[in-house]
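Sample intake sheet
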Amino acid sequence: MVNSVSDNHVTLGMPAAIYRAAQHLPRFMGSALAMLCALIAVFPAHSQDLGGGQALPEESDSPLKYAIYSSAWGESSNAGLRLVAQNRSDNPILLDSILFSDELTPARESRLEVNLTVPPQAWAEIELPYQDLLFGNVCITRTMAENWKLVEVSNYTLNPSVRGLIIEDTDSFRIYQCVRNVFVRWLDPDTGDTTEYAEWVMYHFERRPIL
């Protein structure tokens, strides 16, 4: 769960579909949705364990938070990827790349070249060519096959205590999350200092019940 309660950070923790809907609502309705999502993140949810049972690692303390979106996931589309990043530090950050590796065949990997400069205490985004980020993870493969819709890949989550759980917050909204490790490389464009580290990312899926 995001520690700050500023509007941007509440939005960061929202399910993507609710966030997108809030952008087109009158101001007071959008604020109400933001408050609802904050309550969902804090209030215990009814959950059903689907297996695995491993505890999710602590959320990374990296100052760089990011989310990746694509309308091509699970659809017949030529859409690319869109990456949105937030820099929580007081120095600019150039996000160089994110490396995704096959968990069953480590020699197989896909490096997402980003090359995006994010100003201090600010947001930035970039459009990228489509690249397969769905390979090499049993949870992701199984969930995509079960007709869930992947809405975002990010290094934050609605609730860090949740891994491989269905959360039924209302009768019309369900969330499923898979986790995998990635290797991130970014640098300070002013000094040239490079930072490299491994962290987890969450694959956030949504599904609405058949009416």
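Comment: The first strand starts at residue 46 and ends at 49. Residues 46-207 form a domain with the Immunoglobulin-like fold (CATH 2.60.40).
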